[in-house]
Amino acid sequence: MKNILITGGAGFIGSHVVRLFVNKYPHYKIINLDKLTYAGNLANLKDIENKPNYEFVKADIVDEDTLMAIFDAYRFEGVIHLAAESHVDRSISNPKEFIMTNIVGTVNLLNAARSIWKENYSGKRFYHISTDEVYGSLGDEGKFLETTPYDPRSPYSASKASSDHLVRAYNHTFGLPVVISNCSNNYGPFQFPEKLVPLCINNIRHNRTLPVYGEGSNIRDWLYVEDHAKAIDLIFHSGGDGETYNIGGNNEWTNLNLVRKLCEIMDRKLGREAGSSEKLITFVKDRAGHDFRYAIDSTKLQNELGWRPEAKFDEGFEKTIEWYLSNQTWLDDVTSGNYTRYYDGMYKNR
Ligand code: NAD
Ligand code: DAU
């Protein structure tokens, strides 16, 4: 069995990637390494946790010695690196955490991979998962290409850009076999309800206001999370060494229109009078340095590897809302802090 490391597998996107790999590749042993921060939740993986080709390891990628010992023990043949501090607003209030995990943590992983692979790189791959935010902010026209110059503008995107540069530098300088992808905004089940979509679903449920930053005119390109996971599978297995691939939904929405659509579906699903959730929309102070527009051109991935987003937005969005409404205990647990207390107790002595 090949040992494949997935970092951040207890988070939103990571849990979908772990599930896909565990179910699709029984001849891989998938090791999910996660610190279980507030955003990491093993409940996201209940359905596969007892599979023989899955193992969870609680560790912090900033802890170099522990990481090195784990690499020594498992001799991974592939690394898919998703662990990160991922919320832009948190990076504005606490940038340092982002520098530590996203930059130092990534360098620790690169060093650990280098150290066990010892320049015998045949069949090895280090896959770094990144974001469209590294390219900066667009005006009304144009899309990000893989060749668009980097222009990160928040501590989060600056930390991701820095990690991307380091991954490329390890490829160029040490020959480490790497691949990188930069994806647009994901939506789907298991996203922590600090991000726009699950936050609004949760707030509508409780009849709380829906905080829309500024005038709600900022634009994001939304992709169903399982389509991102499928792209990651494809790039991990078929992407070119040292290459970068953009992944996007070709599906742009202003924040206000997205929230309005969400309100309309929620009213229908909750049996509320049409228009009642929209009344909860409240325009609040804008995010500092708020990027206006992101849009991804994924032609390279489509032409070279044959990827296409499969989920139709209307269906994926409706399915996502349905999932949160059918999993209200999950929402209650992650918003009440019950699950962090549970993990603190469970792993205290390990
Ligand atoms: P998330 O915040 O939901 O999950 C991050 C996971 O990383 C959590 O399980 C957390 O416990 C773990 N983690 C954090 N710090 C760690 C550390 N020091 N050591 C070990 N584990 C740690 O994030 P997400 O939205 O699933 O994003 C995953 C990756 O995809 C990130 O690298 C992010 O930059 C990238 N990305 C996200 C999106 C998006 O729309 N969410 C889009 C493009 C790219
Ligand atoms: O583009 C990819 C990125 O998408 C990922 O790299 C990040 O990890 C991920 O968090 C996401 O970043 P955004 O900042 O775009 O996502 P968020 O859900 O925080 O916000 C989406 C948009 O909605 C953004 O323009 C800010 C706005 N917003 C957000 C929140 C939380 C609001 O108007 N109100 C809110 O309460």
Structure write-up:
The chain has helices at residues 12-24, 64-74, 88-93, 95-117, 155-174, 196-205, 225-238, 255-270, 299-305, 313-326, 328-336, 338-347; strands at 2-7, 28-34, 54-58, 78-81, 125-131, 178-183, 185-187, 210-213, 219-224, 244-247, 252-254, 281-284. By secondary structure, it is α/β, with parallel strands linked by helices. It has a domain at 2-186 and 223-247: 3-Layer(aba) Sandwich (Rossmann fold), CATH 3.40.50.720. The strands form three sheets. The protein has a seven-stranded parallel β-sheet with strand order 3-2-1-4-5-6-10, with helices on both faces. Strands 7-9-11 form a three-stranded mixed β-sheet. A two-stranded parallel ribbon has the order 8-12. Strand 1, helix 1 (12-24) and strand 2 (28-34) form a beta-alpha-beta unit. It is globular, with a radius of gyration of 20 Å. It starts with a strand and ends with a helix. The protein binds nicotinamide-adenine-dinucleotide and 2'deoxy-thymidine-5'-diphospho-alpha-D-glucose (DAU). 2'deoxy-thymidine-5'-diphospho-alpha-D-glucose is lined by residues 86-88, 131-133, 184-185, 195-196, 199, 211-213, 218, 220, 255, 287, 294.
